[in-house]
Write a structure and sequence with these properties.
Structural class: mainly beta
Distance between the termini: 24 Å
Radius of gyration: 22 Å
Mean pLDDT: 93
Largest sheet: 5 strands, mixed
Low-confidence stretches: 1-30
Helix content: under 10%
């Protein structure tokens, strides 16, 4: 693809910082102030107040100032580069920025910054003194009232004062000694701060928790893997397998205020790849689960990958929207799952309407009566190896998809890939990672799926394989995506025709967002350690 522009990154803002405390570097113009929790129910166009922009997970904006007619005139408003913090700092913006009252909040592991959303001027910085943990990335913050919440790799939920970044409290949310770590963007729902956990290395069960926004006290915990005698325990061979069952909760959930239900996708069972010691479906790993927000009690579940042996976490955002199925308006939920399948469910009951492939796969024998794929035992990892598609990175990974109610299309930055899957521990009680996949071929494309049928409406193939980014769709008939060659690309949401692109110098590392301030619609993306803000000039 011919490049329209190349940025010379000579001008950027460098924020100074110090550990264990905020640095106030100046007031912001018409910025600051708390977030009325009611706004979380109906976000305003000048904000992006949650990980997905709103509770639905659609990542769709009603803004139209930037549209399919004028997107070619987009230009750079500002560029912000993370300041140097020395060795050990992860300089990758893998989280979604949050925008509230003209202030943007961004994170990397152990660090939070507040910057002016109009200019990128630094306002404050907070650094957590870490006791360890896996520092892969951080997905962002949650905000409500005058408080900001974020998770740390050493298993803490931290609350900061929104105005100046001073610490209010911290609360342990997992056990670092058990190889858990924390990276999820917390979601604030009513008087609950919802947190999740990560960690695949020591065969521990995953869970989701709710905490008091004022004190951090635990309100409820839902364990992904049931205890002996509970519903779902019949899908495990014994109590020992359940106690080491996995199912991490490492992406922020979505929420329906009318039903008061949370929707979360869960991760792979453990041991990873090796399944001989955990015969059965291994509920509720690799599942889409609806939980009552005030109690954590499960309402229903749907399992995209029963008895997973390919590391296909089903943590992809459950996207909520209204639609028509079987001739009636429905409250729907859709997920493009890592196993290469697309599902549409009734989010009140969990009933399945659509199960289809968004990339061609070879690991199933069809679907069961609930619409769940039936794994083909011949495609389970083997000592001599077996060829499976997709590979362990999946048809899509954690990067968020988007749904446009204007086009009725669900957009997926997808990969079709093949991998040889091997077992190197075929004992009856493997531990940790008992196998591995070695990729042999892949291609990447942006897929637009008709939610009513599951069929591909259009497909735009990227020129090279590899890489992926999150997506944003807008009422301006646009879809914004990152391609494998470091380009930010705008496509016609109806036809898939590429309309504009710009090279960022490195691959997009999060999903684009948009907001409007002072009559200007901003398009914001992160790539590595830099944030790029575009406007129409």
């Amino acid at each position: 693809m011919k490049l329209l522009a190349t940025f010379f990154l000579a001008l950027f803002t460098v924020a100074s910082m110090r550990a264990e405390g905020p640095e106030q570097t100046g007031p912001a113009k018409q910025t600051g102030g708390g977030l009325d929790p009611a706004v979380l129910l109906n976000p305003t166009p000048d904000s992006w107040p949650t990980y997905n922009g709103d509770y639905s997970g659609r990542r769709f904006s009603t803004l139209t100032q930037i549209n399919d007619k004028n997107v070619k005139s987009l230009s750079l408003a500002w560029l912000y580069q993370l300041p140097s913090m020395g060795d050990g700092m992860v300089r990758r913006l893998a989280g979604t920025p949050i925008v509230v009252n003209g202030v943007m909040y961004i994170t990397v592991p152990d660090h939070v910054w507040a910057i002016d959303a109009r200019t990128s001027k630094p306002l404050w910085h907070y650094a957590w003194t870490s006791k360890g943990g896996i520092h892969l990335g951080n997905r962002g913050v949650g905000i409500s009232g005058d408080s900001l919440y974020f998770e740390t790799p050493d298993c803490n939920l931290v609350a900061l004062n929104l105005a100046d970044g001073t610490k209010r409290w911290s609360q342990s949310i997992c056990d670092l000694d058990q190889m858990y770590y924390a990276s999820v963007a917390p979601l604030v729902v009513k008087n609950h701060v919802i947190t999740g956990v990560s960690g695949d290395d020591l065969d521990r069960p995953g869970f989701l928790e709710a905490h008091d926004p004022e004190t951090g006290a635990l309100q409820w915990r839902w364990s992904v893997v049931p205890s002996p005698g509970e519903p779902g325990s019949e899908t495990w061979p014994d109590a020992d397998a359940m106690a080491h069952g996995g199912g991490m909760t490492w992406i922020s959930p979505t929420y329906d205020p009318e039903l008061n239900l949370l929707y979360i996708g869960t991760g792979n069972p453990q041991p990873v790849i090796a399944g001989t010691g955990r015969e059965g479906a291994n509920l509720y790993t690799e599942s889409i689960v609806a939980l009552h927000a005030d109690t954590g009690k499960m309402a229903w579940y749907f399992q995209p990958s029963p008895h997973d042996t390919h590391d296909w976490d089903a943590i992809q955002t459950p996207v909520l929207f209204e639609g028509v199925m079987e001739g009636k308006p429905r409250k729907l939920l859709a997920q493009a799952s890592r196993n290469g399948w697309f599902f549409v469910l009734d989010r009140e009951t969990g009933k399945n309407y659509v199960s289809s492939e968004f990339v061609k796969t070879n690991w199933t024998k069809g679907v069961d009566a609930k619409g769940q794929p039936i794994p083909n035992p011949a495609k389970e990892p083997q000592i001599p190896g077996v060829l499976v598609t997709p590979d362990s990175s999946g048809g899509v990974n954690w990067a968020p998809s988007t749904f446009s109610p204007k086009t009725g299309l669900f957009y997926i930055n997808a990969t079709r890939s093949f991998s040889m899957f091997y077992i190197y521990d075929d004992s009856q009680k493997p531990e940790g990672w008992g196998g591995h996949g070695i990729g042999v071929w892949s291609e990447a494309m942006l897929q637009a799926v008709d939610y009513r049928t599951g069929k591909i409406k259009w497909s735009h193939k990227w020129q090279t394989p590899g890489g992926e980014s999150g997506l944003l769709s807008t009422a301006g008939n646009l879809v914004f995506a990152g391609d494998p060659n470091n380009n930010l690309v705008a496509l016609d949401a109806t036809t898939g025709n590429p309309l504009w692109h710009v090279n960022l110098g490195t691959g997009m590392s999060n999903g684009p967002i948009t907001y409007e301030l002072d009559g200007h619609q901003y398009l914001l993306v992160g790539a590595g350690d830099k944030l790029f803000a575009f406007v129409m000039n």
